[in-house]
Amino acid sequence: MAGQLSYPEARAVLAQTVLFRGLPSAIAEQALSHPDCTRRAFSKGAVIYTPQAFERSLGVLCSGAVEVTKGELIMSILRPGDLFGAAALFNDASDYATVLTAREGCSVLFFPQRLMAELMSQCPALTERYIRYLSGRIRFLSDRVEALAAGSAQQKLGQYLLRHLEGGQVSPGCSATDLAKRIGISRASLYRAFDLLEQAGAIRRDGKHIHVLN
Question: Chain-wide mean pLDDT for the chain?
């Protein structure tokens, strides 16, 4: 299991998140020192949230990586400083939208609904930043829906790379023809998809290894 996060480490990560960056340090200090705030460690493969088991808390990933999936689809990979749980924080729905799984040992800060409401009432700037964060998530999900509707070769290749990502890279261990068959596209489409992802700065090819940058 990943080591428990120290207070200075947690404070440093929190200060750089989209919510707390640039705010008075006292706000982050208050959030971390509040008895409702918890710090937890998860080992690789541990399931953090499922549609049936979740908390009405905002999670802040402080170390490691977390995979967000919906069914067979990988929605995103969370990195240190990323947030999760907004879909349940101020929502009364009885289930959660996605499954969150630790891709490696990770440490997470949890801020329950009551604590977030208290902080927002004291700091209007925090409320504004939370709204901006939610607006960004809406745009992200809209882009994901558009990409899925298109069913592009680039999308299929991206999903394959995310699913087989280990240590920031993928080594398919097969020919381009076999890889194209695995993801259900033509070899020519596979090459175009690689080129587009590389031009977008999402990957870098190095011989038989594919480094996932974004």
Answer: 87
Residues in the chain: 214
Structure tokens at 20: 């707390």
pTM flag (> 0.85): no
Q: Which H, E and C letters describe the chain, residue by residue?
A: CCCCCCHHHHHHHHHCCCCCCCCCHHHHHHHHHCCCCEEEEECCCCEEECCCCCCCEEEEEEECCEEEEECCEEEEEECCCCEECHHHHCCCCCCCCCEEEECCCEEEEEEEHHHHHHHHHHCHHHHHHHHHHHHHHHHHHHHHHHHHHHCCHHHHHHHHHHHCCECCEECCCCCHHHHHHHHCCCHHHHHHHHHHHHHCCCEEEECCEEEECC
For residue 61 the two structure tokens come to 């990933």
What pLDDT, in 10s, does the model give residues 96-128? 989 999 999 999 999 999 999 999 999 999 999
Q: For 36-89, write each residue's pLDDT tens digit.
A: 999 999 999 999 999 999 999 999 999 999 999 888 777 888 999 999 999 889
The residue behind tokens 């349940």 is: 88
CA distance 182 to 123: 51
